[in-house]
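Thread: Newbie trying to understand structure tokens

Hi all, I'm a second-year student working on a class project, and my supervisor (Dr. K.) asked me to get a predicted structure for one chain before our next meeting. I've only ever worked with sequences, so writing a 3D structure as a token string is new to me. If someone could post the tokens and maybe explain what I'm looking at, I'd be very grateful. Here's the chain:
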Amino acid sequence: MIDDREKKIILIVAALSSFLVPYTGSSITVALPAMAAQFNVDAVTLGWITSAYIISAAVFIVPFGRYADIIGRKKIFLVGLAIFTIASLCCALAPTEALLIAARFLQGVGGAMIFATSVAIITQVYGPGERGWALGITIATVYAGLSIGPFLGGILTDRFGWPAIFLVNVPLGLLTIALTLQGVRHEWADAAGERLDLYGAIIYGIMLFVFIYGMLLLPDPVGLVWIVAAIASGALFVWREKRTEHPLIDLSVFSDNRTFVFSNIAAMINYGATFGVGVLLSLYLQYIQGFSAESAGLILVAQPVIQVIFSPIAGRLSDRIEPRIVSTAGMAITGLGLFICIFITPATPVWVIVGSLMVMGLGYGLFSSPNTNAIMSSVENKHLAIASGMNATMRSVGQLLSMAIAMFCFAIFIGPETITPAVYPALMTSVTVAFVVFTVLCLAGVAASYVRGTIHSDDA
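---
Reply by user tm_fold:
Sure, no problem. This is what the structure looks like when written as tokens:
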């Protein structure tokens, strides 16, 4: 039996680990121009510095989630923290852009282990009446990382250089490891004794990597070839999973579970429509508007600050009100914020940018916690790791979709050019077109969120 003290430590540990990854991702957005200046790279390469982490996270989340079910979620969680901490140090010391991208990939492996286990542990420890609140607190720390990231990243970049961003992770990672070792006594291994479907994991990893790589290669026609290969790998994966005794993903979790399926689709679309916003606006504010990294970071804080405020509230609401209603309203509000950004120009006042970010922050804060609650509450305990892994995978795929859209626009309008004043008009066009696509994508997300079905038995 888990006592209240251990439950609180578990929540603190999950919150700290949930802070590390988004802090790193959001702080990097304001450091991209400094990285470009040091390594003399183009906008597409800058996109790879962001995308390398997300690729590895997407590929490894589900396999590590399944492996955690077999050998213990706490074990995988601790190993993930150690890898993430070591990789952060490697990022800070990277002498070339290639080694930085490689270290970011390694960070993604650690992040996959963290996110494949932390939400599943929280869901298992906290019951239905308090689960939305606990998930809301955890997700609020994600937004806290997003909030502090641009501001702290800007300060660190301007005053100490971009490597300082990664060095902050080292003491935080060590602290989280120490708290877990000292305060979390229980282990969770619901599939102990079963075998990991290694062949299925390899096919799954190839499928996702090929699909993601293909997306990031667009508009090059070779990208379409990779995407077709990914579809073929997906068919092979489904065939394999239906015939193995211990599948990597129990496909029955998708059967007759509209809430689970459409909640995951909504999550992917939401991240696809919003993740690239920070990158686009960071480049816009620093290159076109002429702000420093510190000032740009302070402006970008507007969105996640609102998310921090409303995420726990939305999580608590989803324990009482059908999550479909709260999440759909949040997705629609997010779309409004994205729509406003279509019309920004080199002369747009800062207050308009801040206002649109606050609208997006409100929408995303209302969407995320109830959506996660719907995903995790729509499955049995034995499928919690799968649900957690799929939720995290949809987040990663959505983030990569968002980056693919941004990089597609960079490739079309800027090409392989280093960002200089001569290409600022092309950069502005890239930003505008990307926000048009994000807005349309968000409208599709509203539909997916609304048709998901219900999880509260007393709902009419």
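A couple of things are worth pointing out once you decode it. The domain at 4-196+248-450 is CATH 1.20.1250.20 (Growth Hormone; Chain: A;). The chain has a mean pLDDT of 86. Feel free to ask follow-ups in this thread.
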